[in-house]
């Protein structure tokens, strides 16, 4: 393999290969009005109504969160490092008739103008960051004074009783737990996870600490996401849905002073 092929390249290529089927998975695309309502509640709770304010959706993928932000009245830019994901995002935006702007870029070094966004959003991005401390400083610089970042993620490396039950079930029956990834893709996923900053657990407190060091203030950890997770769980196989309900998932909102 090319020795210049980095973990960041591996992350980009992994998600590029998943682009065509990304929206087929519960937890990626939205499959019920109840879940959509939960996301809209979360966005308004922490970011308010858009009113034409500029928002940057990092690692936007197929633009699920970008469209929620657009629906809330923000002027949205979706950024992703995967051209395959951006192709899906642009096609979706064209079909829905939205004016979301999409750009190719690295969430850890966006190349976007300093002090230019009122809000930054991302979902399930932070666990993939190789250098989250530098990334948070970059996001701080891109935000306008008074702007906010809204992170939606979770401590997926934490062992839960449901995960233990799934492992026991696999051991007893020889049948792996239901997954939206093939065994090969799952192995690649685990290989990537082992090499990023949060290679094991990622408690909210660790993210809060890095955000604070980057200069953010008024940091709030919101764990009241049951409406979103219940709506998702209802569309999943039983054990996967149960795991969704007991996982340590959270939203973190922080403000740039000014």
Tell me about the largest β-sheet: 7 strands, mixed
User: By CATH's scheme, which homologous superfamily applies?
Assistant: Vaccinia Virus protein VP39
According to CATH, the fold-level topology is Rossmann fold
Q: What's the helix count?
A: 10
Characterize the structure shown.
There is one protein chain. With 258 residues, this protein is an alpha/beta fold. The chain has a single domain, classed as 3-Layer(aba) Sandwich (Rossmann fold). The protein has ten helices and seven strands. It has helices at 7-17, 33-47, 64-71, 83-96, 132-142, 161-173, 183-193, 204-213, 226-233, 238-246; strands at residues 54-58, 75-80, 101-104, 117-123, 143-154, 217-222, 249-255. A seven-stranded mixed sheet has the order 3-2-1-4-5-7-6, with helices on both faces. Strand 2 (75-80), helix 4 (83-96) and strand 3 form a beta-alpha-beta unit. Helix 1 (7-17) runs antiparallel to helix 7. The longest helix has 15 residues, at 33-47. The radius of gyration is 18 Å and the shape is globular. It starts with 6 loop residues before the first helix and ends with a strand. The relative contact order is 0.16. The mean pLDDT is 92.
Question: Can you give keywords for this protein?
Answer:
globular, 43% helix, 18% strand, 7 strands, methyltransferase, Rossmann fold, 258 residues, alpha/beta, Methyltransf_11, seven-stranded mixed β-sheet
Question: What's the topology here?
Answer:
Blueprint: H1 7-17, H2 33-47, E1 54-58, H3 64-71, E2 75-80, H4 83-96, E3 101-104, E4 117-123, H5 132-142, E5 143-154, H6 161-173, H7 183-193, H8 204-213, E6 217-222, H9 226-233, H10 238-246, E7 249-255
Parallel strand pairs: 1-2, 1-4, 2-3, 4-5
Antiparallel strand pairs: 5-7, 6-7
Helix pairs in contact: 1-7, 2-9, 6-10, 9-10
